[in-house]
Amino acid sequence: MTSFIIRRFLIMLPIMLLVGIICFLLIHLIPGNPAELMLGSEADANAIATLTKKMGYDQPFYVQFFKWLLMVVKGDFGSSIYSHQPVLTLIAHRAEASILIAFVATILFTIIGVSVGIISAVKRNSWLDQFTMTLSLAFASAPSFWIGLNLMLVFSTTLGWFPSSGFPGIIETGNVMNLKYLILPCLTVTIPSSGLIARLTRSFFLDIMAMEYITTARSKGLRESVVLIKHALRNAAIPVVAVIGSYFAEIVSLSVVIETVFNVPGVGRLVVESILQRDYPTLQALLMLIAGLYLLINFLCDIIYAVLDPRIQYD
Known about the structure:
Shape: globular
Radius of gyration: 24 Å
Number of helices: 12
Number of strands: 0
Strand content: under 5%
CATH class of the largest domain: Mainly Alpha
Distance between the termini: 9 Å
CATH topology of the largest domain: MetI-like fold
Order of helices and strands: HHHHHHHHHHHH
CATH architecture of the largest domain: Orthogonal Bundle
Number of domains: 2
Structural class: mainly alpha
């Protein structure tokens, strides 16, 4: 396991370098000049050229890339073109809402999805199984923005239980009650995700329940709860962990939609703002951090596989 962890970590380095090259290339292919956007459409050509040279965007692509790469190696992603704040400081300021939504939603859809999936598998072909699977299919098929708008309509506009938009923050204000601003965004992520997790858990659980070692465990006189939890659930959890891990990483990209719908000042909205403003340093840092998160989640999932099933060997 130790050698596997070291190898995987070393493999992540060239992958991140490749991601950096691709991100840098794609971002610089976006039409528009940041200097022109900053000065406005009425600015003269000389002013635009001067500002472009000052920001270094008049230099060849490879020169810009190597300068940026040297800064990244030193842990410096530069400063935002518009706010003039260090990029990492800007991202850290926006990360609070996104991290809370990701963790809370992941916990919720894991508990709900796995529980519903196991119950449906145990009650296979019953009315409860058919009802939960139909509901899960409907939830998994519903677009996130549609779910968010309907939750906002019902619980904010009609009932007035929760705020419809914004997030004042907890770290800055010191008010934990501001979590109520994130309830609807968390539910918007949880509802479709729990539907898919429930259907996958049921499918994996039924496959495991048909295995011979489950029949052997029952023939030994073990209680059904022991057979389900100790023998079936642990093996069925391996593919479910993979799906949950990928969903946790995808919440970052999904947050672009969710945070826009609920006007939450998080990383997702920062991505949209950076694209519209051609804020290259901020956008490059965001894409690199998102790619790094995907790699880290997959890395942790591989370790969890080995913990759940010691028979798994990483040669």
